[in-house]
Amino acid sequence: MTSLLLSSLSLWSASGDPLVAKTIENVEMKFKIASEEDKTCSVDRDAIDKYTSGVITIPEYVQGYKTVSIAQKAFEDCVNITSVIIPDGVQVINEKAFRGCTSLVSINVPSGVQSLSNMVFKDCKKLTSVSLSEGLLSIGSWAFQNCESLSEIHIPSTVTQIGHYGSNPFSGCTGLKAVHIKDIAAWCRIEFGNYDQNPLSIAHHLYLNNEEVRTVTFPADLEINGKKSTQGYTFYGCEGLESVNIPEGVVELGQWLFVGCANLKIVNLPSTLSVISYSAFQNCTSLETIDLSSTLSKLNNNAFDGCVSLKNIQLPKGLTAISDYLFKGCSSLKEISIPESVESIGDGAFQDCTGLTSIKIPQKVTSIGESAFQGCTALTEIDIPSDVRSIGKFAFTMYRSAMNLKVVRSYIQEPFNIPYATFTYTETLYVPYGTRSKYANTDYWSRFKNIVEMDEITGIKNVDTTSISDSKQKYYDINGHLNNGLRKGINIIHKDNGESIKIFIK
User: Fold this and answer.
1) Ordered DSSP codes for 210-259
2) DSSP-derived 3-state class of residue 330
3) Residue 401 has what DSSP assignment?
4) I need a surface site. Which of 51, 288, 325, 376 has the fewest CB within 10 A?
5) Residue 120 to residues 41, 93, 147, 267, Cα–Cα distance (Å)
6) What is the tens place of the pLDDT at every residue in 268-300?
7) pLDDT (tens digit, 9 = 90+) per residue, 15-32?
8) Is 187 helix (H, G, I), strand (E, B) or coil?
C-alpha cells in the first residue's frame, strides 16, 4: 500500500487565491492560511481528489505554516483512503471531515484536539481503530455513526461530555463490544445527553485498565449544579456490573443510571439520599433486595420497572406518591407495605406484579392510576379507602382477560363514575352500609353483579359460620378471616351457642 507524504502541495490564502500550486506524484492537497501572524494553516475543504487511495499523512508544516486544523468536509467521501496520520499540532477537526471514508481503517486524534465535531467519522464503515488522546473534552453528535466495524473505544479521562440531546455519537456501531477507560471517577462525571449517547448502551461491557468493571464506588465529590448528585445514564446497559456503592453526602441518583445492568445484585445507598430519578434501576433483573434511606422522599417513574427478581424493599415513611410504573413487572414481589403518608398511586405502579398476593392501600390515597394493579394475577381481594376520588381504567383488571380478584371492598361513601374497564365486574363488591343503591346507579360500579353492604362499624355485614363444625369458640377479623385467637383491633367472636359478638382490643 502506498503512503503519500503530502508535505509540499497547494497553499491557499483565506480568500481562496492560490499562493503556491505544486503537485507531487499527481496528488494535490489544499491548505488555507489560518493566521498570517501566527504562521498557521488549515487543511482545506475538499483537500484531495476523491479517488486518492492509501495511507495519508498530513504534514505538520506546509512552506513554514504550521497545520492546526482540518476543515469541514476536508476528506469527505474519499472512499479509497485507508489510514490518516494527523500531526500533533492539529487542534481542531471540523464537522464531517472524514465522513463517508468507507475504506478508512485507522486514525489518530492528537492531544491538542479538545472536541470531536459532529459527524466527523460518520459512515466510516471499516474503521476499526481510533486513537483518542488525553486532552479530548467532548465527543460530538453522530461522531461515529454507522462505524459498524468499530469493536472497542477508548475514552480519555479528560472527556466530560459525550453527545447532545437528540443525537447519538455511536448510532449504528453494531460491532462495538467494549468501552475502555483509565479513571472510574472521571467516567462517573461524564455528561451524556441521553442514554443512547453512552457507548455502553451498545457495548454493554466497561473495562478499567483492561479489567472488566464488576464493582463501582462513586467518587465522594460528585456535584451537579451545586447539588450532590450523580450524572444520568452513566452505567446504562453495563452487563458486567455486580455491585455499586454510593457515598454518603449524595442526595440524588441521576436518571437511567443503571438501566439494564442485568447482573447488578448489591446496591449500597447513603443515608443522605432523598431522590431516586427516573428509571434509575430499570431492568436490573438480578436485583433481589435494596435498602432505601429513611430520608428518601421521592421515587420517580419506572425506578424499579422490570426488576423481576426484586423480593424485598421497604418504602420510607415520608413517601407521598407511588410514581408511574414504579414497580411494573416486579414479578417476584409478593408483598409490599405502602407508607401511610402516600396520597397517590400512579399509572401502572404495580402492573404485572404477578407474585403480589396482598397489598394495603393507605387511607390518605385519593387517586389510583390507570393500570395501577393490572395483571396482578395473584391478588384475590382489594380494599379501596374512603378518600379515593379517582380510579383509572384497567386499574384492577387485565386487558381483554380476567384477573383472579374475587373481593373488592370499597369504603367510598359517595361513589363517582369509573371507566368501563376498571374491574372485571365478576368480583363481589362490598360497599358501606346504606350505599348499595348509590353504587347500583353509578357508572360503572353498576356493572358488578353482586353488591353487598358492609356493617358500618365492623366492615362486614355478618359473620359466616357455615364452616364451623365443632363447638369451640371461633375468632374472626374485620374481613371475616378465621384467626387462632384474639388480636389487636376489632375481633368478631362466634360462641359455641351460636351467638356472635364484637369486641375491640387495644
Assistant:
1) TEE--EEE--TT--BTTB-BPPSSTTTT-TT--EEEPPTT--EEPTTSST
2) coil
3) B
4) 51
5) 20, 8, 11, 39
6) 999 999 999 999 999 999 999 999 999 999 999
7) 444 433 333 344 589 999
8) helix
